[in-house]
Amino acid sequence: MPKADSLKSILDTALSTSPDSLIKTDSILVPDSNLIPVVQNIKFIGFDGVLHPSFPATENWVFITLLILLGMSAFSFLRSSGWFIESFRTFFTVKDRGSIFNKSTMSDFESRLFLILFSIGVFSLYAYLILFASDNGFSLITFLKFLGATGGFFLLKYLMIRIIGYVFLHPTIQKLTIESYYNVLTYLGLILFPMLILHIYLPENLKYYIAVISLILCVMASLVYTIKLFLIFFNKFASTFYLLLYLCTLEILPVVLLFYLYNFMILSV
After folding, report:
1. Which is nearest to 214 in space by CA: 125, 94, 139, 101?
2. Assessment of whether the complete model's pTM goes beyond 0.70
């Protein structure tokens, strides 16, 4: 049995303990670090999500490009003073009395220029759609390459026609030839624009028929331009040989080379 004086000393010691000593950090029990496992270099293993496929109908820049092309065509018709309807009406006539008094204004020049740029944009986007492989994304950079190649192609064609016309043709015949060529170009661009929209946004099983219709329209445009050249240059049977030589060297062969360039750009993606 403990003695009374020993109990008294224990009580005095407890009462004399400073309250500050109860909150000292030294008096806090620190758990043994060996009892808590330390987790380091945690690696979470999972699966990558499936990215949204890049197709023409899912790309925002395609929709914006279509809006720009539509705006260019609308601006061209607003700036036109009726030259487009007149050119369509008199396309198969070599000489027209009304054309003698037809003066080209600045607004007509802007209208023609915007329609030509519109047609170049339509041809470039349509060519990219036809050659597009689903394994690669539908890229804006690739489209800009197509656009540059198509624009360079038509610029070279214009220079070649100018040079050949300066050497071999009368200035009036040269002007009529250039106007006929770019008129057919703009007609085809305007017709292919709705085909382009359908080819982008229609279901996959219908795109084949749209592509076939577009190919038929391109062939018909080529035939129309060939008929126009015969109307301009055919004055004797011997000129047929030179006309066919012109079509092979300045029409068919450059288009084949252009599509080889398109294929090269697709394969280099």
Report:
1. 125
2. yes
